[in-house]
Amino acid sequence: MSAAAIGKDLLGLEHLTPEQITLILDTAVPFKEISERAIKKVPTLRGMTIVNLFFEASTRTRISFEFAEKRLSADTVNVAASGSSVSKGETLVDTARNLEAMKIDMVVIRHQGSGAARFLADRIQSNVINAGDGTHEHPTQGLLDLLTLRERFGTLSGVRVCLCGDVLHSRVARSNLWGLQKLGAEVAVCGPRSLLPNAIDELGVRVFSRIEEAIEWAQALNILRLQLERMQAGYIPSLREYNRVFGVTRERLERAPRDIVIMHPGPMNRGVEIDSDVADGPHSVILDQVTNGVAVRMAVLYLLAGGRPELAEAAKG
Question: How many CB atoms lie within 10 A of CB 88?
Answer without folding.
Answer: 6
